[in-house]
């Protein structure tokens, strides 16, 4: 097929790669003069959503990797320049640049009566030109149209800045600043602004669920992202039916057989691994003086410039209880902020939190709903982006909600020839691997190797219901996905790269790694189309036990035997203060 890919950010790059694997003819259009999307800081820097100067990943490079080019230096964090370098290496390795037309802005995508797609492109120095394709992948992402229509601040006389334009805190020095909203990027901005502002206040309507980037003062928190944990939290301990087919979900019997075997193998692995480490070859690696964020280990930290103290950990735990209105948060129902670096400034009173809401403004004076008022010079909007699919001129995305597409991607009305890739945001995990798996599915659809399910509309409704019930405390974040692992496993099962149950039974060590150890997307290259079994297996088998001890594994095994009524009420981060 002749396939158009719109956007050369992470989602667009992996889409090109997966389509080329299936020998399709690919043309990608991107408005920038180089690849990388929001990670590339060239072009019209102030007018586009871009990475700010000090942006650092909120999950490790391991989890931000594509499965066909895994990061090899452990679960370390990098800044936006490091991630852009990774994307450039990926493009170089698979010769993706030769398929990209830069400085080319797509203006319109139109579905024709003959089933083809017309794409209108404004290219540098020329008139808009129409191209014809058999299929289209929209990979331009949800960060296009900023949400600036905040009626409560209508008429504010000071300066209003949306986070998309934020690059550093230079413009906020000595100012009285009100920030509205808080998410991962907002956490960084609030820390930086409150460090230099005369006064900084943040107004929030809800408390996001906070997760520090580091545990035990050194390891990446996404070390704790395991299948056993995710399936326990969002499936087994819940009365919300999980409808997608994935690990052990074919039937009630298979689920319990799988769990029984996995737990047996897990228990058996503990003494075997202990003996192996106790009496085996002792290669003691050189101990780095830096943690996984590249900062000094001493004093111990749980996030960027955030010391690992009981006060900080207690604050996070209390905040998280508020996120679920003190009703328990063992299985979360709200978006995450995998960034707690703003917390020390709250404790130091440099950042003031207002969770009562804004009533109205008069001039530069903001009146809050708790009957207080305060004057500000600037308002920083950390209010996210609006859903905008106007690029698709005669295609309707119902309610502008990607949950009305199959797997957040495939429109049920066009036989799999239209895909929106990268419009899914797991509350714990990364967009790139989600985009890659959507792209692999799309490539197989274009090749005719798979088809959308005959009951696709019914499945969309069931999966949408599951997501909305789990994300009930973040109803406006329609890209959000409770569990990256369960979402990816379900796609893998449909396109044939889900490792079979019977093969896992025959390989106990691998089964333990896949179920109890840190999630590693190399598992989707063990089998199926375009697999790389030996390299994927080696990458998986080098994963360490979460936290480098067996307490976490034993906890997951114990919880699998308990009814949900015996589970902990809250997910507390007491491990944060361990040395």
Automatic annotation (TrEMBL):
UniProt cross-references to InterPro entries, sorted A to Z: FAD/NAD-bd_sf, Flavin_mOase, Flavin_mOase-like, FMO-like
UniProt keyword annotations, A-Z: FAD, Flavoprotein, NADP, Oxidoreductase
Gene Ontology MF terms in the entry: flavin adenine dinucleotide binding; N,N-dimethylaniline monooxygenase activity; NADP binding
Sequence similarity: Belongs to the FMO family.
The protein's name in its UniProt record: NAD(P)-binding protein
Lineage, broadest ranks: Bacteria, Pseudomonadati, Pseudomonadota, Gammaproteobacteria, Oceanospirillales
């Amino acid at each position: 097929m002749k396939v158009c890919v719109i956007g050369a950010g992470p989602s667009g790059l992996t889409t090109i790669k997966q389509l080329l694997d299936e020998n399709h003819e690919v043309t990608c259009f991107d408005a920038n003069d180089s690849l990388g999307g929001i990670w590339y800081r060239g072009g019209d820097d102030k007018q586009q959503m871009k990475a700010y100067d000090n942006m650092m990943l909120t999950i490790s490079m391991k989890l931000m990797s594509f499965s066909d080019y895994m990061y090899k230096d452990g679960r370390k964090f990098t800044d936006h320049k490091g991630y852009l370098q990774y994307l450039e290496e990926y493009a170089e390795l698979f010769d993706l640049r030769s398929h990209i037309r830069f400085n080319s802005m797509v203006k319109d995508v139109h579905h024709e009566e003959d089933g083809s797609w017309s794409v209108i492109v404004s290219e540098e120095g020329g008139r808009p030109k129409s191209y014809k394709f058999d299929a289209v992948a929209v990979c331009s992402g949800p960060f296009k149209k900023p949400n600036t229509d905040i009626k409560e601040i209508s008429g504010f006389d000071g300066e209003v800045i949306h986070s998309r334009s934020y690059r550093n805190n230079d413009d906020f020095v000595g100012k009285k600043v009100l920030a509205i909203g808080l998410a991962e990027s907002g956490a960084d901005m609030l820390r930086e602004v409150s460090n230099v502002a005369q006064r900084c206040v943040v107004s929030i309507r809800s408390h996001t669920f906070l997760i520090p980037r580091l545990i035990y003062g050194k390891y990446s928190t996404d070390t704790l992202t395991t299948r056993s944990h995710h399936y326990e939290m969002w499936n087994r301990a819940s009365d919300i039916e999980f409808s997608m087919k994935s690990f052990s979900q074919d039937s009630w019997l298979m689920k319990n057989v799988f769990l029984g075997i996995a737990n047996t193998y897990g228990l058996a692995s503990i003494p075997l691994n202990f003996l192996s480490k106790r009496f085996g070859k002792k290669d003691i690696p050189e101990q780095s003086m830096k943690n996984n964020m590249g900062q000094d280990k001493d004093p111990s930290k749980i996030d960027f410039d955030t010391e690992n103290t009981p006060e900080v950990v207690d604050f996070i735990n209390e905040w998280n209880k508020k996120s679920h209105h003190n009703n328990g948060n063992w299985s979360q129902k709200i978006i995450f902020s995998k960034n707690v670096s703003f917390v020390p400034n709250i404790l130091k009173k440099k950042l003031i939190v207002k969770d009562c809401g804004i009533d109205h403004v008069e001039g530069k004076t903001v009146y809050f709903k708790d009957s207080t008022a305060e004057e500000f010079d600037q308002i920083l909007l950390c209010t996210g982006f609006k859903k905008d699919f106007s690029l698709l001129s005669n295609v309707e995305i119902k309610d502008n909600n990607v949950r009305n597409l199959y797997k957040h991607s495939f429109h049920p009305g066009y036989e799999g020839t239209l895909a929106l890739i990268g419009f899914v945001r797991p509350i714990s995990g990364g967009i790139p691997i989600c985009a890659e798996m959507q792209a692999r599915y799309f490539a197989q659809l274009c090749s005719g190797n798979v088809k959308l399910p005959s009951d696709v509309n019914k499945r969309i409704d069931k999966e949408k219901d599951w997501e909305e019930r789990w994300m009930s405390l973040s109803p406006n974040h329609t890209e959000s996905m409770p569990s990256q692992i369960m979402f990816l496993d379900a796609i893998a099962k449909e396109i044939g790269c889900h490792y079979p149950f019977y093969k896992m039974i025959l390989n106990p060590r691998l089964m333990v790694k896949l179920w109890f150890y840190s999630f590693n997307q190399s598992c989707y290259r063990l089998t199926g189309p375009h697999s790389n079994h030996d390299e994927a297996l080696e990458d998986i088998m080098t994963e360490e036990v979460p936290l480098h001890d067996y307490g976490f594994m034993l906890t997951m095994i114990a919880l699998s035997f308990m009814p949900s009524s015996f589970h902990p009420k809250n997910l507390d981060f007491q491990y944060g203060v361990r040395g």
